[in-house]
Amino acid sequence: LHSWIGLSVVVFYFIQYLSGFTTFFFPGWSIPMRQLVLPFHQAFGLIILCFVAVTASVGISEQAAWHHKCWTVDHVLCGEHAVSTLVGVSILIFVTCVVAIVLNPRWRRLPLPEEESLHHLTNTD
């Protein structure tokens, strides 16, 4: 399961990367079209980040289930399981904090004055 989710995440990441690169770097796209694409680009970026966390958590749990034998042999919780659990929980907490920060409108970057005059951007918030 970990490998399939991970492969899907890599494919979606490269699709996101190429679409963002062509949309926002090449000068052929108009500003209104870029403004239309930006929310979808941001949303898919957050979704990919969440799937990266799921992939890492599944990989850690598969590693713990198949390679840590101390629980099945000794019937005690060993340090390997504690570290695996701590790393998995840390990844989930980190991604939750990143998503909360990105979705909070008070912490969004405001356009710079030269960006507004150059592109004639309007604040749609």
Q: Could you describe the 3D structure shown?
A:
The chain is mostly helical and 125 residues long. The protein has one domain: Up-down Bundle (Four Helix Bundle (Hemerythrin (Met), subunit A)). The chain has helices spanning 2-24, 31-67, 70-74, 79-103, 113-119. Helix 1 runs antiparallel to helix 2 (31-67) and helix 2 runs antiparallel to helix 4 (79-103). The chain is elongated. The mean pLDDT is 83. GO terms for molecular function: metal ion binding; oxidoreductase activity. Residues 1-103 form the Cytochrome b561 domain. Its cofactor is heme b. It is found in: Membrane. The chain crosses the membrane at residues 6-31, 43-61, 81-103.
In short:
Its main location: membrane. It comes from Gongylonema pulchrum. The chain has 125 residues and is mainly alpha-helical.
Secondary structure: number of strands: 0
Number of domains: 1
Strand content: under 5%
Number of helices: 5
Helix-strand pattern: HHHHH
Give the end-to-end Cα distance, rounded to a whole number of Å: 40 Å
* CATH class (first level) name: Mainly Alpha
Query: What integer value in Å does the Rg equal?
Result: 21 Å
Query: Mean pLDDT, rounded to whole units?
Result: 83
Largest sheet: none
In the CATH hierarchy, the third-tier topology is known as Four Helix Bundle (Hemerythrin (Met), subunit A)
Q: Percentage of helical residues? A: over 70%
- Ranges with pLDDT <50 over ≥5 residues? none
Structural class: mainly alpha
The CATH level-2 architecture is identified as: Up-down Bundle
Query: How would you sum up the global shape?
Result: elongated
